From TrEMBL:
Residues 40-170 form the Peptidase M16 N-terminal domain. This is Insulinase family protein. It comes from Streptomyces himalayensis subsp. himalayensis. Pfam families: Peptidase_M16, Peptidase_M16_C. GO terms for molecular function: metal ion binding. Residues 192-374 form the Peptidase M16 C-terminal domain.
Length: 461
């Protein structure tokens, strides 16, 4: 009889002690032209991320020209006084760089990513785009046509259509926030190169702009690079624009955007709440995450796992505009989609979740899981230079201190279950939510009306 073979197992490796981590703190300086610079050295990050924030908010757009900030943002990469649009794109490609831009309520942002070895060339291109954009008639006309082509596709998208309707419902008609960020067919059609240049000349200058640079900066004379590139950008001095207060009407009501034959209903439920300057923000973040921040949240547990109405429902808070004096605001919302026949039952159960939350509160297990997910995985979230740069740029845009994100994680870890419960219940009161449903009104109107969650209005899709 042969002897049975034996195997020797090596001991299973064990995790070592966790290393202390904090969101990185930037160094803040100002160039001679007035440009504010935040730099953050991240060893090993060989792809450098640069974010430029321009104080050109959407509410600065001239009447009847909604969308001109978006066209301007896109036109920055469409040629300069040195390069045509094609040449500029080719030069970026030779650097291995990408340049993206967008306009939102707080202003315009440009995001550059480039290998650190090509940073001098890429910063020069970025400086040219800001210093002397071409805004050629042909390129602006093409961007306008492209934007006009995008609008019907956005209207056909249920989620985008719901967001558009919620903004229209929440904000007064005279508020820029009530209208699409990138303009409508009527306003975009009226934009030309002269309008883009006029907006640029009035609102784009280094004295009110900020540059954020993140990456492995060892061996790089960043001061010299900035002086030779962004430092050559000139413009008049000016004070930052005042932040107008955000007002909204969140009286509980339902708007059904009719899409005959739709097999699903897109739902978006929202209201306006405090921004990141409010002391309740950490507890609100934690409570909202427990409500609908992940697959294991309470909304998913009921609507997806128990009832099978949906593939997922999310609750979130998104800052719209921020100000230290309390005039800013965040959108607090719940979004998802459900099958058409179960629209009424799904909304009924969603409201039951909110009422139960108010009556019984969050559990310690929900709280602990949320803290672990939000705080414990933060080092992974900020592994790239772009992620760090984006967050630092958010802080600047929202007029927050440079150590805000680091403090936020400490506050999240110290927030208790009772505080998180109070914050999320205050964020989502059952009688102060505007509900937008994009779906087949003939099937969902009456079941929703029977729920009694607010007056129901039907509009065309």
């Amino acid at each position: 009889m042969t002897e049975a073979a034996t195997m020797e197992f090596h001991p299973q490796p064990q995790a070592g002690p966790a290393k202390p981590w904090a969101f990185p703190a930037p160094d803040r300086t100002t160039l001679d032209n007035g440009l504010t610079v935040l730099r953050c050295h991240r060893p090993g990050q060989q792809v450098v991320a640069v974010e430029i924030l321009l104080d050109s908010p959407l509410d600065a757009e001239p009447a009847g020209l909604d969308g001109v900030a978006t066209i301007m943002a896109r036109a920055f990469s469409e040629g300069t006084d040195k390069h045509s649009a094609e040449e500029f794109a080719a030069e970026l490609e030779r650097c291995g760089a990408t340049l993206d831009s967008h306009a939102d309520h707080p202003g315009v942002r440009l995001a550059l990513e480039v290998p650190v070895s090509r940073l001098p060339k890429a910063l020069g291109l970025l400086a040219d785009a800001l210093r002397a954009p071409a805004f050629a008639d042909s390129e602006v006309e093409r961007l306008v046509r492209n934007r006009l082509d995008e609008i019907p596709h956005e209207t056909a998208n249920p989620a985008r259509r719901a967001a558009k309707e919620l903004s229209k419902e929440l904000f007064p008609a005279e508020s820029r926030m009530s209208r699409p960020r990138q303009g409508t067919e009527e306003t975009v059609a009226g934009i030309d190169s002269a309008a883009v240049r006029a907006f640029y000349e009035k609102h784009v200058r280094p004295a009110t702009a900020t540059a954020v640079v993140v990456g492995d900066l060892s061996g790089t004379d960043l001061d010299a690079l900035l002086a030779d590139s962004l430092g050559t950008w000139t413009g008049s001095s000016a004070e930052p624009r005042p932040v107008p207060p955000v007002t909204a009407d969140d009286i509980g009501r339902v708007v059904v955007v009719d899409r005959p034959g739709a097999v699903q209903t897109q739902l978006l439920i929202g209201r306006i709440g405090p921004d990141r300057h409010d002391r309740v923000w950490p507890a609100q973040v934690l409570g909202t995450y427990c409500l609908g921040g992940t697959l294991t949240s309470r909304l998913d547990r009921v609507l997806r796992e128990e009832k099978g109405y949906t593939y997922g429902v999310r609750a979130f808070g998104q800052v719209l505009r921020s100000a230290p004096d309390g005039s800013g605001a965040a959108m607090l919302a719940i979004s998802g989609s459900v099958d058409t026949p179960n629209t009424g039952p799904a909304l009924d159960d969603l409201w039951k979740v909110l009422r139960t939350l108010a009556a019984e509160g969050l559990t310690d297990a929900e709280h602990d899981a949320a803290v672990h997910n939000l705080v414990g995985v933060a080092p992974l979230k900020y592994e790239t230079a772009a992620a760090v740069a984006g967050t630092l740029a958010d802080q600047v845009e929202q007029r927050l201190p440079d150590d805000f994100q680091a403090q936020l994680y400490q506050q999240l870890a110290a927030t208790g279950t009772v505080e998180a419960t109070a914050a999320v219940v205050s964020a989502f009161p059952v009688d102060r939510l505007v509900t937008v449903l994009v779906g087949d009104a003939s099937q969902i109107e009456e079941p929703v009306r029977a729920l009694g969650i607010g007056e129901v209005t039907v509009v065309t899709g």
